[in-house]
Amino acid sequence: DTAVSQTPKYLVTQMGNDKSIKCEQNLGHDTMYWYKQDSKKFLKIMFSYNNKELIINETVPNRFSPKSPDKAHLNLHINSLELGDSAVYFCASSTQETQYFGPGTRLLVL
Amino acid sequence: SQQGEEDPQALSIQEGENATMNCSYKTSINNLQWYRQNSGRGLVHLILIRSNEREKHSGRLRVTLDTSKKSSSLLITASRAADTASYFCATDAGSARQLTFGSGTQLTVLP
User: Fold this and answer.
1) Which residue from A23, A106, A28 is spatially nearest to A66, judged by alpha carbons?
2) N or C, which terminus of chain B has less Cβ within 10 Å?
């Protein structure tokens, strides 16, 4: 009965690889987000997706692309992974003002 | 850039004491929210205060908002070891339902 779930929980991969992180919410929310949290715990929004409208943080490299097959899912695909991509990635969803976060995916790029 | 800056970065207190964390932000906001993050977990929403409100309570939490100073504070009364976590303020300043998070305060409550 998890509200916002992410898979995988841990992801260790080599530089240059392409990987995806999946996110699903069963709350019926219409807006979903991806955040990146670095080693200093700074949390930065990467994308928000609402009714097929994608809002992209301008600082996000175009190697990152969100894909939403339906309203309950917002997956994150990352091409050509770099060392600096190592972080914890959080998915979240909201219907009004507050956001509900997933447990996070810990990505380590070697 | 970070909208919110939190102070202190880290706070260590004894169980039963009160903990106060402060948040400053830069632009006009619709509301300000506080979230808690336990180690290795996602963020959990605690409380929301709107720009036309000055104070709000929820259980042992008390939040104040001073829009003239662009600052907010979170008070946790009678702290417990289980309150040990990172606490983040987040501001809602636009129409895209996007939040901008502060740098967080790491609270440690010693038993």
Assistant:
1) A23
2) N
Chain A hits for B36, CB-CB cut-off 8 Å, are none
**Hey, is A83 helix, strand or coil?**
helix
d(CA B16, CA A33): 37
Min Cα distance B42 → chain A (Å) is 4
In whole angstroms, give the CA distance from residue A30 to residue A42: 25
Angle (nearest 5°) at CA A18 between A73 and B96: 40
pLDDT tens digit sequence for A58-90: 789 999 999 999 889 999 999 999 999 999 999
Please state, in angstroms and as integers, the Cα–Cα distance from residue A56 to each residue in A68, A89, B75, B98, following that order: 14, 15, 34, 11
Kindly state the tokens that stand for B62. 């008390």
- Beta strand A10-13 with A105-109: parallel, antiparallel or unpaired? parallel
Question: How far away is chain B from the Cα of A101, in angstroms, using its nearest Cα?
Answer: 6
User: What confidence tens digit (pLDDT) does each residue in B73-84 have?
Assistant: 999 999 999 999
Look-up: residue for tokens 């303020």? B89
